[in-house]
Design a protein that fits this description.
Radius of gyration: 20 Å
Number of domains: 2
CATH topology of the largest domain: Alpha-Beta Plaits
Organism: Thermoanaerobacter thermohydrosulfuricus WC1
Distance between the termini: 17 Å
GO cellular component, one term: cytosol
CATH superfamily of the largest domain: Lrp/AsnC effector binding domain/regulation of amino acid metabolism (RAM) domain
GO molecular function, one term: sequence-specific DNA binding
Order of helices and strands: HHHEHEEHE
Structural class: alpha+beta
Number of helices: 5
Keywords: DNA-binding, Transcription, Transcription regulation
GO biological process, one term: response to amino acid
Number of strands: 4
CATH class of the largest domain: Alpha Beta
Largest sheet: 4 strands, antiparallel
């Protein structure tokens, strides 16, 4: 799908308020509502755009947020990533180049839950050579509003 400025403008507006109606977006952009609806539907159908609710983890009971930096035997990299993707508390997984092979962000309800995950689940995954765990003490920025830079 080829993008133009209208597609980017629709995405910028939805990043600010994902509940904004097609009518409101159309009025802001001075475009027909049908055009905005069509473009939105194309963006969603092509998996370019998702509009979702993002709850605050701490407000809904996830007191422990951690980042795992993993060194993995490359033969097992895909297997480890897929196993971690099945863990409901895992929020983010990425292959990386550099010191670590995988970066994982995980939200847990308690330190005991994190310890259980580390000692019972992660420890049993074949191929993990090293895990560097960092606990997020205070979140300063977590934004999805990066389209303003495009």
């Amino acid at each position: 799908m080829k993008f133009d400025e209208l597609d980017f403008e629709i995405m910028r507006i939805l990043q600010t308020d994902g509940r904004k109606s097609f009518r409101e977006i159309a009025a802001l952009l001075k475009k027909p509502e049908s055009t905005v609806r069509l473009r939105y539907n194309q963006l969603v159908a092509n998996n370019i755009l998702r509009v979702v609710a993002i709850p605050d983890p701490k407000q809904v009971g996830f007191e422990v947020m951690a980042i795992l930096c993993l060194k993995v035997d490359l033969v097992y990299l895909q297997e480890v990533a897929e196993a971690l993707a099945k863990v409901k508390e895992v929020r983010f997984i990425a292959y990386t180049a550099g010191r670590y092979d995988l970066i994982v962000e995980i939200y847990m309800k308690s330190n005991d839950d994190l310890i259980k995950f580390m000692t019972e689940d992660l420890a049993k995954m074949k191929g993990i050579k090293e895990c560097d765990l960092s606990i997020e003490l205070k979140l300063f920025k977590d934004t999805y509003n990066w389209m303003n830079e495009v």
